[in-house]
């Protein structure tokens, strides 16, 4: 009997001691107060910031699908359909994603900057010889990382204004709405939108800090890998911001300083040009985020070169969802002058055999993103995955032309337009005459610059933002398709006037439903 | 020895009396009318835990103290009490039927068995007859409509589908809504339902109110379902064998979907330029040559089910056992869907000594499951969309090749637009299967060192190993010649130890009974998961991970998690003469899932019962044979949220240029605490005449500090944050009525009905006036139901231009979809009225049972129509018949807008999904024992025909209204089953 009681009590004690550890932590994360205490932690955060910048800036197709130059085929399956027909609402995911992601990344950068300050402060108090004390080299690198964080924040804030704000007009910038400027990481803060002038002020502040830190670190030369921001990349963003703010003389000068040197020379032969797009490497590329088979590549080519059987290189029955319009292709024909050939046509518009619906048809397809063999998930099968440069010199040649034009300097505007044209257009055989450029003037010059930007940067830069900046309408009227019978009728000849409210994307529903401070500041409602 | 024991017990301040010599009594229990032995009658020594269950011949044996009283109870019979005189060794008893007193004995809420009528809480018992012999893997499906206040919905026809069970509405939004499942005393999970053979279940008791559930503390807010599996009997003279087998066919349930026929569809598409003239001609010619395809019946084909069960139970003086094994193989009606399961169970109860009993319940189930959800490349999308979206004029062959009818010739066919695949081909080329082993085992040691004192230690383990194998074969047309192989591995296990001491005082003054219980419980849970995927396989026969040529770091993942809980609890029961009873329980839980500041939670409950039929003024009343009043109040909690939500975390990931990255992943919430609930319940139970019983109960269930992912504006940096954000109220009424309509020697006809009404309201919101989640059609507003639909209101189509009109928020119709405002409707996705009714007819050996279940005022967003009726998103797809009513010219009055008009999500697709379903219909015949006696060894033969989901009445125009959710996009419809089974007992 004694033993039973003993046994019973033992059992009870054993039971009560079991399951005692009530502090549990996940195995794939670290408590926040332990996760940012050393230089290595800061370095890893910097990698994540680049990741976030890449994720945001490589999302380039949605706004371009809203614009001229492409037609949706019968097989488009409503992919980008809402953008193509301008029927998206404020709940649509691509509209909401850019807002949500960019704001989330900005908060991460705010956290990083605050933690770096803490890190530097505690580091100052550490005794020499402490294993965690940062060396001179590490401190220098930390300054670079802080500068890069400021740069990315400026980049992301401008990215947001491109979509969700009106064009910057110095006369009205103090009344127009900008974005929400959040400098902290407290999730309980509810801010309304700042005005556009304040927004650009903040962007410029970040950009100045970035410029100082980055040029401090690199001097005047760019980093050896073109996937880390260097002084030229900073100049590129500066040029764009100056253009946005109508500071044309400075914009032109900055752009000119980028493209006038021998580095980042424009490519002049068709083979190298096509290779730049296929292999994502070339002299023109100023900055391009890192991509490999494991990270960073995006399947830009899918809507244009889709093969349901997974082998687009060899397929004779491709099913593209979007095909370039005949009117666009004709723009590269130099007004029908057969003696000259544009090296972009062979790279951008090869002829392929397609099958749309049940109809077999031969079409010119858009081939700027032909699929980089290094990113093929399976060797031999093209995954249609590519990288895309953030900044390349042709972009800034055109920017220089546009800025000079707006500044009133038509001579220089023509000079840069000519520089690009002469790089891209050549005699089609050794016996034909070389390309000669005839200067333009007035409105004609501006239209030529604008059309050249479309031809060069098609599906690469944000055309919706370009149209907004120029105050132009989006009109597919007159943009004849290659083959009307295989295209969807909806949106084919869409005509949106320049003052349509939809040129600015709506503030997403998830924002205004939960943020009382933004009431009355919405773009659409 | 005695002195020592005496001193120990004086120390514990407990009185006791050692028993004198016990008498060994045997006997036979028979039915007074027929003389047949009563199998399964409970013979108990009154006032103790000592009980025996009569065996095949109605025989029992029991040790009784001198002058002790034996109590004989059996369902449907009058309880008898017989005092055992000294020297009496054989007591035979005849029992008379009594349909008014259903004295069931149940084991619930820790502690020992109690009869249902003495429990102050409100509970419902569902017997093995309703649960056994059902042609589905998931036993819970048979509970539909059986328990008042409980809604059971099976949202998929997959053989491996489980059911959503809700008791008294839904008490939570972000924490789980499932009740706690306890199997033989061990807390378990809904997964185990798929591992339980339906024939192993003795009964399922649903605990609905605070008095019964509060003792389960933080997991009991949604009610508790206590499952008892069959046990052996120590009094059996010989072992009882049971073998059964069955075969059945599954088909999809009947539905109201009407599709346009092929010719009409082609005309429609041509008219709206979705296809060209030449395509029209081609498809028409194809259709004429090969016929149109009924995609619904092509995807969902009749499929067989086979099952076989074996069990043996019996016992000897010191041991009783129940051992069973079963095999069930159910093929699903859709491609790539099936489940094959083996279960093994051993329930052993041994009397090691007169004061120590050991129970061991072990079960293992191993199954192979194929589900349309688990395939590489989301082929399930093809399965779900084919019946709705594939045009009927599309021939149903694989994309390029087909067999010309009647020959072996292969013809070449131009494949479908948009590369759509034949689902059977797609699933054949993307095989997958999950292999699972689930185990649930417990050992409990019950010590009864002294009379009235029971010390129990229950220790058990519940868990599973699963692995999923998925392949994409290189011969698959869309693979480009390169295969894919993916493997998942997942295991989880819960260790539970629960120790209680129960002391039942000797009746004070013969009428006052007092029982005390104290206990402790600890739970340790761990789970573990990893997955790998490689690609590049080139040969269908070499499809292992290592046969691939390429692996991406993004396709390798691993995760694990764990949580612990430590609890203490206690209970006091008091009852007087079976007339008045009072229960008091308290419990404290501490869990690792919550922030340090909020880790502990305390729960309590109090309940009382007044058995009016024992009062003098009702004693012997002929009309009101039973009248009981119960009232309880108690608190429970809910802690089923993810384990680390309260922590602020930095995670690894977001690598760049091959270098590791890290980022701030979760802001955390130190204040994150339990969801708490207070429940008040009052119920009245009555019996009228001898043939009608009814019970009605009212409940008021208030949840506070409810866990919720409050949506945050993206400008704050996060899109949601877990907080204790709101409070909710569920109030309602449960009603049970059962009546024996007619009874004589040969016939017995009974009906019963269960009914539940639930009303839901949000009582407060912590931080704002309303929390809106438009993407889930939800708007939480104080004073209104949490389950209302919140979406744009469709105001019809303007006959002048065919444009759809939406409410702009002020009642004005607008045609620009961007101006449409979200409005709250009063339609809810959880039905406020639900229940069932049963008809039971018996005539000699034949019996017919029909179980109906219904849900009223249930609304469902038919997401399939959002796509199939859209003229801006899909082209060249199948259209429903009603699309013929599309607006074509000014003056047309219709609710389908003109071609090319955008239809956003709106009330246009919100449908009434109320339904009445004949859930189970069983027709069986039991061979008469007089006939079987001639064989000498066969005790029983039963043949049954069982039909499941035979008939459904609903207005819903989709495939199946029994979908539990807000919106449905592609549902695998429930199955209708016709099966036949044969059972032998010997």
In short:
The complex is a heterodimer of chains A (525) and B (986). Helix content of chain A is 45%, strand content 7%.
Describe the structure.
- The complex is a heterodimer of chains A (525) and B (986).
- Chain A is mainly α and 525 residues long.
- Chain A contains 18 helices and eleven strands.
- Chain A has helices spanning 2-17, 39-57, 61-64, 81-84, 93-125, 136-164, 196-218, 231-244, 248-259, 270-279, 302-305, 326-330, 343-348, 393-407, 410-424, 442-457, 463-470, 509-512, and strands at residues 29-31, 70-72, 285-287, 322-324, 340-342, 351-356, 359-364, 391-392, 425-427, 474-475, 495-496.
- In chain A, the strands form five sheets. In chain A, strands 2-4 form a two-stranded antiparallel sheet. A two-stranded antiparallel ribbon of chain A has the order 3-8. In chain A, strands 5-9 form a two-stranded antiparallel ribbon.
- In chain A, a hairpin with a 2-residue loop joins strand 6 and strand 7 (359-364).
- The longest helix of chain A is centred in the N-terminal third of the chain and has 33 residues, at 93-125.
- Chain A is globular and about 100 Å long.
- The termini of chain A are far apart.
- The mean pLDDT of chain A is 90.
- In chain B, helix 4 packs antiparallel against helix 5.
- Chain B starts with a helix and ends with a strand.
- Chain B is built from ten helices and 52 strands.
- Mean pLDDT of chain B is 84; it is low at 5-20, 99-103 and 398-407.
- Chain B is mainly beta and 986 residues long.
- The chains are: A mainly alpha (525), B mainly beta (986).
- Chains A and B meet through helix 1, strand 1, helix 2, helix 5 and helix 18 of A and helix 1, helix 5, strand 24, strand 25 and strand 26 of B.
- Strand 1 (29-31) of chain A pairs antiparallel with strand 32 of chain B.
């Amino acid at each position: 009997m004694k033993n039973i009681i003993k046994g019973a009590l033992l059992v009870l004690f054993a039971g009560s001691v079991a399951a005692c550890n009530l502090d549990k932590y996940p195995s794939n994360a670290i408590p926040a107060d332990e996760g940012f205490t050393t230089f290595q932690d800061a370095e890893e955060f910097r990698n994540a910031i680049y990741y976030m910048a890449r994720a945001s800036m490589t999302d380039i197709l949605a706004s371009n699908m809203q614009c001229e130059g492409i037609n949706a085929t019968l097989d488009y399956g409503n992919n980008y359909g809402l953008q193509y027909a301008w029927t998206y609402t404020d709940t649509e995911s691509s509209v909401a994603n850019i807002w949500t992601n960019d704001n989330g990344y900005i908060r991460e950068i705010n956290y990083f900057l605050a933690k770096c300050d803490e890190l530097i402060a505690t580091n100052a108090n550490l005794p020499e010889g402490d294993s965690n004390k940062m060396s001179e080299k590490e401190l220098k690198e930390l300054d670079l990382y802080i500068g890069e964080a400021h740069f990315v924040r400026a980049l992301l804030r401008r990215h947001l204004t491109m979509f969700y704000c009106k064009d910057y007009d110095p006369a009205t910038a103090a009344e127009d709405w900008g974005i929400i400027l959040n400098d902290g990481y407290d999730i309980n803060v509810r801010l309304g939108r700042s005005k556009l002038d304040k927004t650009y002020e903040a962007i410029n502040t970040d950009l100045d800090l970035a410029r100082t830190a980055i040029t401090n670190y690199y001097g005047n030369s760019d980093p050896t890998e073109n996937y880390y921001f260097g002084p030229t990349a900073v100049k590129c963003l500066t040029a764009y911001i100056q253009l946005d703010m109508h500071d044309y003389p400075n914009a032109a000068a900055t752009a000119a300083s980028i493209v006038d040197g021998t580095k980042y020379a424009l490519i002049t032969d068709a083979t190298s040009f096509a290779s730049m797009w296929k292999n994502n490497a070339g002299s023109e590329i100023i900055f391009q985020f890192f991509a490999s088979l494991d990270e960073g590549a995006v399947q830009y080519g899918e809507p244009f070169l889709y093969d349901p059987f997974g082998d687009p290189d060899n397929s004779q029955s491709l099913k593209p969802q979007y095909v370039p319009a005949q009117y666009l292709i004709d723009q590269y024909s130099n007004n029908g002058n057969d003696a000259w050939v544009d090296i972009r046509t062979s790279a951008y518009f090869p002829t392929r055999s397609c099958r749309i619906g049940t109809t077999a048809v031969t079409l010119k397809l858009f081939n700027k993103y032909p699929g980089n063999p290094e990113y093929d998930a399976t060797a031999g099968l093209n995954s249609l995955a590519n990288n895309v440069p953030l900044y390349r010199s042709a972009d800034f040649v055109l920017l220089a032309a546009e800025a000079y034009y707006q500044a009133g300097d038509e001579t220089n505007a023509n000079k840069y337009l000519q520089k690009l044209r002469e790089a891209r257009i050549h005699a089609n055989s050794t016996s034909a005459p070389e390309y000669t450029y005839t200067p333009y003037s007035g409105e004609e010059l501006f239209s030529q610059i604008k059309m050249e930007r479309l031809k060069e940067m098609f599906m690469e830069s944000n055309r919706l933002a370009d149209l907004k900046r120029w105050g132009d309408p989006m009109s597919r009227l007159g943009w004849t398709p290659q083959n009307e019978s295989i295209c969807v009728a909806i949106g084919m000849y869409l005509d949106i006037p320049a003052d349509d409210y939809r040129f600015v994307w709506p503030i997403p529903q998830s924002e205004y439903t939960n943020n009382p401070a933004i009431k009355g500041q919405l773009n659409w409602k | 020895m005695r002195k020592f024991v005496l001193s120990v017990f004086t120390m514990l301040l407990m009185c006791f009396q050692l028993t004198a010599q016990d008498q060994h009594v045997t006997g036979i229990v028979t039915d007074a009318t027929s003389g047949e032995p009563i199998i399964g009658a409970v013979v108990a020594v009154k006032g103790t835990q000592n009980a025996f269950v009569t065996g095949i011949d109605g025989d029992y044996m029991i040790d009784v103290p001198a002058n002790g009283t034996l109590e004989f109870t059996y369902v449907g019979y009058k309880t008898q009490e017989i005092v055992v005189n000294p020297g009496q060794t054989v007591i035979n008893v005849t029992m008379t039927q009594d349909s008014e007193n259903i004295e069931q004995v149940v084991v619930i809420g820790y502690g020992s068995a109690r009869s249902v009528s003495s429990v102050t809480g409100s509970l419902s018992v569902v017997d093995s007859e309703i649960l056994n012999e059902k042609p589905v893997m998931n036993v819970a499906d048979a509970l539909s409509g059986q328990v008042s206040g409980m809604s059971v919905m099976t949202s998929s026809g997959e053989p491996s589908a489980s059911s959503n069970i809700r008791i008294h509405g839904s008490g939570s939004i972000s924490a789980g809504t499932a009740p706690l499942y306890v199997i033989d005393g061990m807390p378990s999970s809904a997964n185990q339902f798929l591992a339980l053979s339906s024939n192993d279940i003795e009964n399922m008791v649903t605990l609905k109110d605070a008095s019964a559930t509060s003792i389960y503390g933080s997991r009991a807010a949604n009610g508790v379902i206590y499952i008892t599996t069959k046990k052996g009997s120590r009094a059996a003279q010989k072992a009882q064998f049971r073998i059964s087998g069955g075969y059945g066919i599954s088909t999809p349930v009947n539905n109201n979907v009407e599709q346009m026929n092929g010719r009409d569809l082609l005309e429609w598409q041509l008219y709206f330029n979705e296809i060209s003239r030449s395509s029209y001609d081609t498809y028409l010619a194809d259709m004429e040559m090969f016929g149109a395809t009924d995609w619904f019946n092509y995807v969902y084909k009749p499929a067989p089910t086979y099952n076989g069960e074996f069990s043996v139970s019996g016992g000897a003086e010191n041991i009783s056992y129940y051992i069973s094994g079963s095999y069930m193989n159910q093929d699903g009606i859709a491609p790539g869907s099936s489940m094959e399961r083996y279960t093994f169970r051993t329930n052993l109860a041994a009397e090691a000594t007169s004061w120590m009993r050991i129970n061991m319940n072990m079960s293992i189930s191993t199954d192979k499951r194929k589900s349309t959800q688990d395939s590489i490349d989301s082929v399930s999308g093809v399965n779900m969309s084919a019946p709705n979206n594939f045009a009927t004029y599309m021939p149903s062959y694989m994309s390029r090749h087909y067999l010309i009818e009647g020959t072996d010739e292969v013809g070449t066919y131009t494949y479908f637009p948009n590369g759509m695949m034949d689902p059977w081909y797609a699933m054949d080329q993307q095989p997958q299967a999950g292999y699972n082993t689930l185990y649930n085992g417990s050992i409990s040691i019950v010590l009864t060192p002294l009379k009235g004192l029971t010390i129990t230690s229950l220790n058990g383990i519940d868990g599973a190993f699963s692995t999923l194998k998925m392949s994409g074969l290189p011969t698959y047309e869309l693979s480009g010649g390169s295969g894919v192989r993916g493997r998942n591995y997942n295991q989880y296990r819960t260790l539970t130890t629960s120790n209680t001491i129960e002391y039942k005082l000797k009746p004070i003054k013969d009428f006052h009974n007092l029982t005390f219980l104290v206990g402790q419980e600890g739970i340790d849970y761990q789970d573990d998961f990893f997955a790998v995927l490689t690609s590049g396989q080139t040969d269908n026969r070499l499809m292992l991970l290592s046969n691939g040529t390429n692996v991406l770091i993004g396709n390798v993942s691993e995760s694990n998690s764990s949580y612990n809980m430590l609890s203490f609890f206690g209970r006091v029961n008091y009852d007087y003469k079976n007339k008045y009873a009072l229960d008091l329980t308290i419990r404290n839980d501490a869990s690792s899932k919550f922030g340090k500041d909020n880790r502990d939670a305390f729960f309590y409950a109090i309940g009382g019962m007044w058995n009016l039929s024992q009062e003098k003024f009702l004693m012997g009343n002929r009309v009101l044979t039973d009248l009981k009043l119960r009232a309880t109040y108690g608190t429970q909690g809910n802690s089923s949220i993810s384990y680390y939500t309260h922590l602020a975390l930095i995670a690894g990931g977001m690598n760049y240029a091959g270098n590791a990255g890290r980022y701030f992943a979760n802001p955390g919430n130190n204040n994150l605490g339990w969801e708490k609930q207070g429940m008040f319940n009052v119920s009245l139970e009555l019996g009228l005449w001898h043939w009608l019983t009814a019970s009605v109960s009212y409940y008021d269930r208030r949840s506070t500090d409810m866990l919720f992912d409050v949506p945050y504006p993206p400008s704050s940096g996060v899109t949601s944050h877990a907080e204790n954000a709101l409070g909710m109220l569920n109030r309602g009424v449960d009603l049970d009525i059962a009546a024996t309509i007619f009874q004589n020697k040969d016939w017995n006809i009974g009906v019963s009905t269960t009914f539940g009404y639930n009303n839901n309201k949000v009582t407060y919101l912590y931080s704002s006036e309303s929390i809106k989640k438009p993407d889930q059609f939800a708007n939480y507003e104080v004073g209104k139901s949490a389950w209302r639909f919140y979406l744009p209101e469709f105001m019809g189509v303007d006959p002048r231009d065919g444009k759809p009109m939406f409410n702009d928020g002020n009642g004005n119709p607008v045609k620009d979809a961007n101006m449409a405002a979200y409005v709250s409707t009063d339609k809810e996705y959880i039905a406020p009225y639900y229940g069932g009714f049963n008809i039971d007819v018996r005539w000699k050996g034949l019996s017919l049972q029909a179980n109906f279940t219904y849900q009223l005022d249930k609304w469902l967003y038919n997401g399939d129509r959002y796509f199939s009726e859209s003229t801006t998103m899909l082209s060249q797809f199948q259209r429903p018949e009603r699309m013929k009513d599309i607006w074509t010219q000014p003056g047309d009055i219709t609710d389908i807008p003109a071609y090319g008009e955008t239809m956003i999500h709106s009330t246009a697709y919100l449908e009434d999904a109320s339904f009445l379903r004949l859930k189970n219909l069983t027709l069986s015949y039991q061979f008469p024992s007089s006939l079987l006696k001639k064989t000498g060894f066969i005790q029983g033969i039963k043949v049954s025909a069982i039909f499941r989901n035979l008939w459904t009445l609903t207005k819903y125009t989709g495939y199946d209204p029994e979908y539990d959710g807000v919106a449905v996009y592609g549902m695998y419809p429930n199955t209708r089953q016709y099966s036949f089974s044969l059972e032998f007992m010997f």
